[in-house]
Amino acid sequence: MAESMVLNRRPNTALLSDPVIALAGIDKWFGAMHVLKDVSLTIRSGEKVVICGPSGSGKSTLIRCINGLERHQSGTITVEGVELADKTLGTIRREVGMVFQSFNLFPHLTILQNCMLAPMESRRLSRQEAQARSLDYLARVHIAEQAHKYPSQLSGGQQQRAAIARALCMQPRIMLFDEPTSALDPEMISEVLDTMSELAASGMTMLCVTHEMSFAQRIADRVVFMDAGRIAEEGSPDQIFNRPATERLALFLNRLLKH
Questions:
Q1: d(CA 243, CA 185)
Q2: What are 35-61's pLDDT values in tens digits?
Q3: Which end of the chain is more exposed for a tag (fewer CB within 10 A), N or C?
Q4: Which residues of the chain have pLDDT under 50?
Q5: Helix 111-122 to helix 156-168 angle, to the nearest 10 degrees?
Q6: In degrees rounded to 5, what are phi and psi of residue 69?
Q7: SS3 annotation, the chain
């Protein structure tokens, strides 16, 4: 893992490239509740961005808007140069992998079958090609030996790693993580974070909502702090954690890091 951390801290020349995700003036309401307020954010190829903030600040809603799981009411979202719309949703989802708080594995399928399904349906891989790819990614997240088991036979940490492998089997250019460790017991969190750290070191573009601040400090190129539906502050991990510019962020970190 030390090697992964060193790799991640090399200068990231890809950050000079054009944005692969661009949000401009995003507003989102749930009924009368205004949950995202004029949010603009860009993420470049190879960049690792961590979004943090108090509960109800709009973090998960923001990340779910990027792949169309939630519909924004105003503003634009562009992924790989394609504006998000009904007619482009399928194209964008093929390039954007998503890992959720809950594992969302099909309980009646083995782990291997869970991983093979989308590549066969969306990428038109043959069964043999999908199986080979799935076994490769299961090995990369260190659970190849669990391939023929069902989700109920795995621990929470193993299920979440299986969910990561399943997303990677589509070979996306971008990975979104929505609080991927929040449903795990404490002893299972580190194995999932280790897997994500290895993925970060490989150069994958990643956007992650998490309360795991040590993980954010370790892998993030940039940390975004959200509060009350807005981006209140953003910067490098050093800036955010050691030199917060606002009293609101300082208070949030003080409360979070005490627990």
A1: 31
A2: 999 999 999 999 999 999 999 999 999
A3: C
A4: 1-11, 13-14
A5: 20
A6: -70, -30
A7: CHHHHHHHCCCCHHHHCCEEEEEEEEEEEECCEEEEEEEEEEEECCCEEEEECCCCCCHHHHHHHHCCCCCCCEEEEEECCEECCHHHHHHHHHHEEEECCCCCCCCCCCHHHHHHHHHHHHCCCCHHHHHHHHHHHHHHCCCHHHCCCCHHHCCHHHHHHHHHHHHHCCCCCEEEEECCCCCCCHHHHHHHHHHHHHHHHCCCEEEEECCCHHHHHHHCCEEEEEECCEEEEEECHHHHHHCCCCHHHHHHHHHHHHC
Contact indicator for 116, 130 with CB cutoff of 8 Å? yes
Report pLDDT digits (tens) over 14-41. Answer: 455 678 999 999 999 999 999 999 999 9
